[in-house]
UniProtKB/TrEMBL annotation:
PROSITE patterns: IGPS. Pfam families: IGPS (PF00218). GO terms for molecular function: indole-3-glycerol-phosphate synthase activity. It comes from Nicotiana tabacum. This is indole-3-glycerol-phosphate synthase. Pathway: Amino-acid biosynthesis; L-tryptophan biosynthesis; L-tryptophan from chorismate: step 4/5.
Amino acid sequence: MDSVIPLRTTTATAATVATTVRPRFSIQPLSNPRPNKPAFSLSVPSSIFMSHRARNLPQCSPVRAQQDGSAVASESTIPEGDALKIKEWEAERFKDEIATSEGIRIRRRPPSGPPLHYVGPFEFRLQNEGNTPRNILEEIVWNKDKEVAQMKEKRPLIVLNKLLSSAPPTRDFLGALKESYSRTELPALIAEVKKASPSRGVLREDFNPVEIAKAYERGGAACLSVLTDKKYFQGSFENLEAIRNAGVECPLLCKEFVIEAWQLYYARVKGADAVLLIAAILPDLDIKYMIKICKLLGLTALVEVHDEREMDRVLGIDGVELIGINNRDLGTFKVDISNTKKLLEGERGERIREKGIIVVGESGLFTPADIAYVQEAGVKAVLVGESLVKQPDPTKGISELFGKDISC
């Protein structure tokens, strides 16, 4: 990504300014008046930005052409809206630096340039390359960022807070997993209500989320996972709400790509008992913050990891009680169930046992042999979607997956 070079020189010829900016900026006439009020919300927790306020972040100043042919750069002339947009851009770039230092390769949003500025009657924006998602997970996150912004406009946090009083009480997601494992001596099942996926397309044409949820419950599922992403998985929060209102007693996991704490409140209002936090897209500070919010709301946080670095990061965070190991690489969608065993061997497995963390095996589980493999590796729960939802009778599909009836 190109960096912004601060314009601090107080005098320069107009020709020099034009020569400097022409190769790196696109210039267009300034037609609309600039807004005085910013139309964004700063998504970086203030503790991140304020604790590093002394860092030398990029700065931008407006450039004004003078009658004598010189150009003046002055921060005092930055309109309020522009100044705040610049700070947001700077903070987002800093947050990207933090994420990169923690091994997070998924960018939160496209690396667009800083806010528009102006030179006389023209405005310019720094051009950048790399504005195409590098993999499907990054594409999903970029879309989710826009989607959440639109949803927040319709239902701001103050509205959700008022709705919490009428939301159904949360159920003990973690307790349900422990009880099932103790009763069956097999990994507790989190059965997934899932219509489609980016890698497999539509999994079930005759998709009725409530009927599928009830079939899972009859088959012995301890908890349910409900996909709520609409664009890529054809899910919805309406499905989550409908299952909860239909009297299904299994605790419900909101399977969503969470990037902001606002989504936790929304999931709680819609009837979720647990939420998914994906380490591949969330920095440590965000995970810590969201776990605290979950505890305040009565939600269980399932923190998902895929590789050793993500596992080490999550094990270093206080308050984590439930870790999911995804055998599917969310960047390539390749599946390898040996990933579960690899992440639970040696010192990591010891730390998990010492902390009393429940581990959930996710993805690539289709047979009793698969279930036995991850159980031997150390998991006490499994999250299964595709191999069950495609079955004509999901209740029977659970018995076939475990090699026995686990409903008793």
